[in-house]
Amino acid sequence: MLKQAYLLTAQWTDRLVKDAAGIDEHTRKKAEFYVKQIANAISPSNFVLTNPELLRETLSSNGENLVRGMHMLSEDIKAGQGVLKIRQSDPSMFDVGKNLATTPGKVVFQNELMQLIQYQATTKNTLKLPLLIVPPWINKFYILDLAPEKSFIKWCVDQGITVFVISWVNPDARLASKSFEEYMREGVITAINTVEAITGEKQLNAIGYCVGGTLLAITLAYFAAKKQNRVKSATLFTAQVDFTYAGDLMVFVDEERIRQLETHMKEQGYLEASRMANTFNMLRSNDLIWPYIINNYMRGKKPLPFDILYWNSDATRMPAANHSFYLRNCYLDNKLTKGEMEIADIRLDLRKVTVPVYNLATREDHIAPAKSVLYGSQYFGGPVKYVLAGSGHIAGVVNPPSKPKYQYWTGDKPNGESVETWMKSAAEHPGSWWPDWLDWLKALDAETVSARKIGGGKFKPIEDAPGSYVKVKSWT
After folding, report:
1. Residue 311 near residue 140, CB atoms below 8 Å
2. What are phi and psi of 409, to 5 degrees?
3. Which pick of 98, 136, 162, 414 has the fewest CB atoms within 10 Å?
4. Is 210 a catalytic residue?
5. pLDDT digits (tens, 9 = 90+) for 193-221
6. CA-CA distance, 140 to 110, in Å (whole number)?
């Protein structure tokens, strides 16, 4: 009876919002999102008296499960400095540099915004063109270097690629004024300059993940405007260049909300990591919030160790100026594909970007929806290979050939059609997309050279990978 009453009430409130007259579409989407959050929160399974399993466990243990749970709740509020930081994995089981991010390499350069890591070659010869990976500054780069059997970075090194990775700083108030342009100049372009100095190559291949991919695309448009041909190919992992179909994150983006965030960030110089982490968790609250509320605080059990969820909770802060530019120019005004975005007083035109692009989307992505990535593909001026991987924003990318869990699809360059229409003529492939990407990369330039030494004799290594920037925590 409780279950059916709950389901009927949830369906009624959903229809109430969808059928409401006289409201604009953005307000309707916001209402749908928050009504869904309330419906998820009041599920009978989230309460002891209406969850038979919890009730039996509480009675049989004389409430010891709740005592353990309240102790864990207290620890998590303390860890979040007054904000509940839900533990999604057992943090005691992981240590960055010890059993995560262990691919051998050195930090060869650093400045205020980033450390640049070069990884030790494991093959006698490597591809002539080096690879630079631009991860998101919203999260830490080691999602691409988890345990060795899951590490995309290690796999690339073992395939004979000279790999460089940007490790962004976890900013504090001292970097409040660091702009989006400075992230491009002092981050991506400085990294490209350093890679060129170390390898002697005038071009490189580049990968951008999530907002790192957006930054990479903007850098390519900047290079195109300056008539600089410094990137041979670009690979985008679940990255958006057009934000027309940016999904549920648009719920948090309007003029009023951005002004509130800007006022808040102005007071302390950054947006707390907890704000971003909670936002992403809310997008999948039935997967990332409520199961842990029940398991941790009601059953009193520690979550199982899971490297991806440990990384998910190891969030970073957002510098005020950079984050404001990103929200306004991308999410709110969608200026890049309109040809209205300006960087360093230069108006950017994405259609002038003619380098080959490998544009990877994931089918169940709730952060960069497959529809959004597909729609953005049409705005590049050169050849685009759109690839759709199974699963979501993380698991669809971290799908190694040694232990593949999901499939992927390849097809023609999208032209603004729906994902469903594109898939009708696409070919489905079992296993990991990683070898397909490598074949695409080698088809552009397969020339090899002798494996390079770290630093190239020009840059003295600063410290071992993964470096110190990635170990700075947002919570104490």
Report:
1. yes
2. -125, 145
3. 98
4. yes
5. 999 999 999 999 999 999 999 999 999 99
6. 16
